[in-house]
Amino acid sequence: MSEPLLRLHQASKRYGALKVTDELSFSLAEGEALGVLGPNGAGKSTMFNLITGDVRPDVGQVFYAGEDITPLPPSARCHKGIGRSYQVPHPLAGMTVFENLVVGAMYGALLDEEEAYEHCVGVLDRTGLSHRANQLAGTLTLLDRKRLELARALATKPKLLLLDEIAGGLTDQEAKALVCTIDAIRADGVSIVWIEHVVNALLAVVDRLIVINFGALLTEGDPETVMASREVREVYMGIEA
Ligand SMILES: Nc1ncnc2c1ncn2[C@@H]1O[C@H](COP(=O)(O)OP(=O)(O)OP(=O)(O)O)[C@@H](O)[C@H]1O
Predict the structure, then answer these.
(1) Ligand 1 pocket check for 45: Cβ under 6 Å
(2) What is the ipTM for the molecules in this complex?
(3) How many angstroms does the Cα of residue 216 sit away from the middle of ligand 1?
(4) How does pLDDT run across 45-88, given as a tens digit for each residue?
(5) 42 CB under 6 A from ligand 1?
(6) Known PROSITE patterns for this protein (predicted)?
(7) Which residue's CA is the nearest one to ligand 1's atom 1?
(8) Rounded to the nearest whole angstrom, what is the distance from the C-alpha of residue 18 to the centroid of ligand 1?
(9) Which domains does the chain have, with CATH numbers?
């Protein structure tokens, strides 16, 4: 069997007395789209921080394309193809939308200026932001800030895209458009891990689900089986078995 694109191996992270991830292990095959569910505070965003290098595990490792990347800083992981959107958008507010993307393309994907411009025009188009290209990022609506968050991640030319709750607050129509965008990104060969509370949108995209509770893997499997499982009904959805 070929090496997974991403593998977390018993990754634990503690803040004081709080064990935020607890020997968390899972893997992602190349080309796969994996959904992540779990209650608020379960440790999902921290898991992304461990993958991107924003946070180092106290114990455990992160492997990417077979390499132990645990010691690497976020910039090196980004250069290797790990891109990420943040749950709370934090664009470079005083720069235009296009400039935000160019920064991602030049510093994240190490493109030269000309290549970066060409790439970012495509990203604007793909994310529905072309008409906002020259607007200051700090003046965008929430919807467009979310689009920009996705666009900034794409600007870095990720092979692995980590999406953190990008569908929250969208109308049904907007969520459908987002699903189409993510499907198109996948069709280009990008592997995806998507943390999302908007379950309908998530299920429209992912091949497999994992559920995290108290920082540990509660269950994993095909979406239908996971959604019907007793653990998920009890813990995630608050329904008694
Ligand atoms: N830097 C930090 N310092 C202290 N505690 C933290 C830190 N980062 C996260 N936590 C705590 O760790 C727990 C898990 O947070 P995390 O953001 O990973 O959860 P989550 O599953 O992504 O939650 P949500 O669905 O609400 O976004 C929370 O109790 C949070 O307050």
Answers:
(1) yes
(2) 0.95
(3) 13
(4) 999 999 999 999 999 999 999 999 999 999 999 999 999 999 88
(5) yes
(6) ABC_TRANSPORTER_2
(7) 15
(8) 10
(9) 1-81+159-241 (3.40.50.300), 87-157 (no CATH)
